[in-house]
Each structure stands twice: as C-alpha cells, then as structure tokens.
Predict the 3D structure of the following.
Amino acid sequence: MSAHSIEVLGNTFTHKDTLKSTFKLWWRGESWKGKYRVGSVLLPRLISYCSKNRLKLLVDGKRVGEAEVESETDYAEDYEKDTVKHNAKGTGGEPLTTHTLATVITPQGYEKINVKPLSDDAPEGDYHELLSSETPYSEMRAEQKHLLPMISEKLEAGYKNIIVECPTGSGKSALSYWLPLVFDTNCYISTPLKGLQKQYITDHPFMASAMGKANYECALEDSELSELDLQGCNASNAPCRVIEDYDCSHALKTEDLEGIINGEQFTTPCGYYSAYAEGLKNRWFIGNTTYLTAMKLFGKPTLPTRPLLIVDEAHTVPETIEKFCGFALSKKRVARLIYGKNYTPNQMGLALEEYPFPSVESMKVTTTPETRRSDCIKILLFLRAIAKEVETRLKHRKYKPDEMGDAKAFIQHTTLMMKELQVNWEGWVYQFDDDELKNQLKVEPLSVADYAEDCFLSLGKQRIFMSGTIVSDKIFMSELGLNPDDTVFLRVTESTFPVSKRPFAIKRNGGLMIWNKESQGIQFSDLKKTADVVAEIASHYPHHKGLILPYTDGIESAVVDILSDNHPEIAARLVQHTKNPQEREDVLEDFKGDDGNGILISTYANQGYDNKDIKFVIICKLPFLSLGDTKVQLKMKKSEKWYQTKTVQTIMQQYGRAMRSKDDWGHVYLVDAHFPHWYQTRNIAPLMPKYIKEALK
C-alpha cells in the first residue's frame, strides 16, 4: 500500500481550518477526507490531534483511537456556553489562573507556511465575538482574518515557538489583544522600545504596563529619606534598591505573588510596585524587552512564567539580549564608580592609576585562541578588582542616591558576564573604541543562543514572535537558539496596501554614501549631493510632515549643516532631539501631536516610531552594519546571509515608517547612489519581500 485513506468525523466545526490547512484534508459532504503516503509525518500528528479533541479517525476504514463522537447539535449547545467573554471596556477583567495552552508538545518537525492570498472578504471564522464597537477593534484586516485562526491552530497543536512575519501596518497589536481572549489566558507583551509600550497602553488603556524603577518616584516620605541621607531619589536608587536587607513597608514581596495572581487585593503608594502588581492581575502585562529581561534575571520578586509570551518587533530581541548580557566600560565610568559622578580631573587620574585598563588590544578576526584566552583573564582580573571596590562602597553607602543605580547595575551585569567569560571565553568579543586612547572597553557575547531561554524566553511556556522583518527564519531561530521541531513560521507574503499609495523611489542623483579611506569618512561632495536631494524631495511636500533617516549621527550633523547653509527654508522645518532618553521621547511625542509641516531627522526612528501624519520618508544611507566591528566580521564570516539579512531588516523597518493602513498613503525615498550596485551584486534581491519589490521605482 503506497497511501493511507484518511477520514475524520465528529464535532469538526471548530477544527475545520486545522483539518484543511495543517492536515491537508477536504470536506466531502459529511466528513473530512484525504490520503497520506505511507510514512507521512502528518499521520501520527493527526492521530494525536483527533485523540486530544475527541474526533473519530478512520485510517483505511479502521478506527484509530477511542474518541467519542458527538453530534453537531451537541457541539452547538456547548458553543453557546463556552463562547469567549471579556470586559470590552477593559479593566483587566477578573484575575486569571495561569494554565498551559497545550498540555503536550506534539509537533514533530519544523513548518514554514506562506499565508496567501490575502483578501478583505476572507472569513472571520469563529472570532466574531471579539469584534464590536465597544472593543478596541470593530473589524478585522485581511491579514488578521488569515493569521488569527492559523496562530490559534498552531498554539492548540502544541508548538512552543510561533514566528509570524507580516508587513508593517498589518495590525499585529490587535493579535496581541485577541489571542489571550481566544484562549482565556494571560500573557506578557514585549516591545523593544518604551515608546511602543506607551502606544499599546494608549490604544488599549485596560492593559497593564510596567517599566524600570527609574521611571517611578520613591513613595517614602521626605523625612524617612532624610534619615537615610537619600533625598530626591527615585525607585531605582531608593532604600529598597541600594540598602542591603532594607524592609520597605510599601514593597511587594515574593510571598505576595500567589495571592495577587489569584485575585487578592494589593495596594501600595509605591508607583513601581503598584504597576508591577497591576501587571500580575492583568490578562495583558506589557513591558519592554530590557525590563522583562532584567526582571527575569534579577527581579525581586521575579516575574512568574505565563502561558504566553508575545514578542512585538521580535527581530530586535537578539541584539537587546546581547547588549544586556554584555557591557561597555569607559574611563569616565571607572572614575564615577570609584569617586562618584562629581569626580575631579585629579581623581580620574588616580582611579585609572589604581585600576588601569588591561594591557590588551582589541580582538580581531585573526587573534589567536591563546591570545584571546590570555586577554580574557586580564579583563576578568580588571573587572573583579573594580567590582570588589564598588561592592565595598555600596556596603558603606558611599554613593549618592543618583549614583547607586549605576553602581548596582555594574555589579549585576559584570557578575553575570564574568561567570560566562571565565568558562566560555571563545564565545565573547572584546574591543576598545580606540586602541591608542582606550577610552572605552566593550565586551559582548558573539551569540545569545545559549542565553536567550534563561534570560528572556522562559517568561512564556509558548511564545509568539511577531515582526514585519524576520527575513530569514533559519537565522532568526539560530540567533535565539529555537528548536526547529517546536517551531512554525507563518509568513504573509503580500500587502493589502495599494502599491500606488506606497512607492519606494530610488534617487540615483544622491551621494555615494560609503566610507572613503582617503577622507576617513564619507566625502563631503557626496554628503552635499545627498542633502541637496533631501531638500529637493522635501520641497515637494510643503504642507506635509516628513521623516529623514540619516542612519548615523555624523550623517545627521552633516545634512543639517548643509541644509542650513544652502536650503534654509527646509532647515527651518527640521526637528531634532538629543540622546537623552526622556528628552528624546518628549520631542517625538510633541512632533506626533504637532499639526504643522515639520520634518523629523532622527537616527532613533528607524523602527518602532509610528506617526500616521508622516507622508514622506527619506533614507540617506543604506543601513550596512560596520565592518570595522570585530563581532560583525566574525558573524559575517560564519554567514554572509546574516549580514545581508540585517541590512534588509533595517530597510524594511525604514520603509514601514510611512504608511500605516490601507486608507493611508506614504512615499519613501532612498538617496544612496550605492543602491543599484548593492542590490544587483550582493545577492540581496532574493531577501526582499514581494510587497517591497513591487513598490521599487
């Protein structure tokens, strides 16, 4: 026998999408039927699925399993009783009891599914109860109509990791809202930026959000803080944070966790612990990736595992964990850690004399294993010496309130990093910003594949990774150490946004934005060409807001100066921000609310910045990672596709800043003259999604 005859009967109504898309069966009047070749991996999975869901399965006419058959009438009655209910106006609903979505992991191999074609008239399946004028969403976009049932099926099937790639503006945040409702469970929602975290709360005010302690004031009275010589501190350098074994009456303790999760009341004047407790009670707990990682590793109390972890802008996670696990230590920071932030030039000299930077050179691709091991030992001894001094100063409370957060963070990060550096020195990269001056030493892991699970991913028993720019599923899985046997990749290959409203124009008269050895940078003539084209483009949109993405601070500074000298009418429209996080967020928020024709120029807004009023985006330079970075060189040596993928990811993110819905419009321009050569010779075209290729002009 070369093939098995398959038939599925019973209450198949809620399983129709799974039986059709996953198990390749067809409805034949009274049952689902099909044929499997002998040895097909689908058969054991179908047996498990039918047994779990009480469906009758016949293989070659013989009963397999012991499932009871129910009538469609019985099912209809159950459906009325079990339909998902939720508080539409959203107070977080009643507290939920954490439970797994899939009792057993049943997948037996990696799946990659292209989700197409897309159409607005796709069925909404059984999810109509999620839509009403009283909820945040009254209708589903075409992408959502296809993805929601497919993601639900894969969660039910037991997949641990579900990777979802769909174009920017497809409505991924709505999926984050719906999925916990479909399964009546709770989740973490992770975002890479605080701005995106705030946007979630703006759009869904019934969700709960928590950030790092520096975002909250200490709840203690001034008199209490004065006694401890901690006036003017925030929650990050409050007594509970910087004084060993300090018992704050306002703090949330580990023994409180279970009660809060099960609905017990917990009130506190502490802004941070109040936000934390509200998150524990809420179906949707939103945090930025850095915060959630820190809480997973160092939280007191730590965050409990939830059934679902939903990761927005998931392509950023490897880099975030890399930065979190590694660290950068400058000479200024050494002086600050030893003598406080108000150190004198003389004290800085003393600090560097007592704790000199290790006598090593920046690691290169050609550095021998023997040298790397020896250098790592020197770095370890250097860090241990400083850490010992910092711990002593913390113990004797020699830091001011606004210095303690940095000191504690240094101890946490270096302790974590030194353990790994000692046993796995081959997996780390060390570099100075300047080998002659050695002002800053940076130590980072080459890969976070071995750390991602413990540092972040274990927050959810099942994880949904959502992004508009995964590009390569294999590279993404490799970077995070995901097991292919537990993973499915759902990719939306087309955009429902009309291509005529989202053109991507390549301006060949821009400058050649590449490094020039003679000038040790981009030539001024090329920078001027680029600035002139920027001005030309902006002049066509006198009444609309725009966004300029320079990619580097140096390009931003040069473009602003040239525009000021040669195109003052365009320069007058420019909006800039500093590197200060709070000032930057204020500028971005003010720009979003402004009704004028301003043009934001920002290296920060490559991704995650949503402003529906932006009608044109200008990309000044192809976003190549620096080949002067040893870590980049080593990763590229291992996989050139990794380097190409990172470049395409950034371009896709930049392109997605312009148009946010099918009724919107936005024009994108790339003014780097290097693009045609790069596109044709670097094997990039195959990585570009169809919806961008069709927009290229």
Notes: Residues 67-99 have pLDDT under 50 and may be disordered.
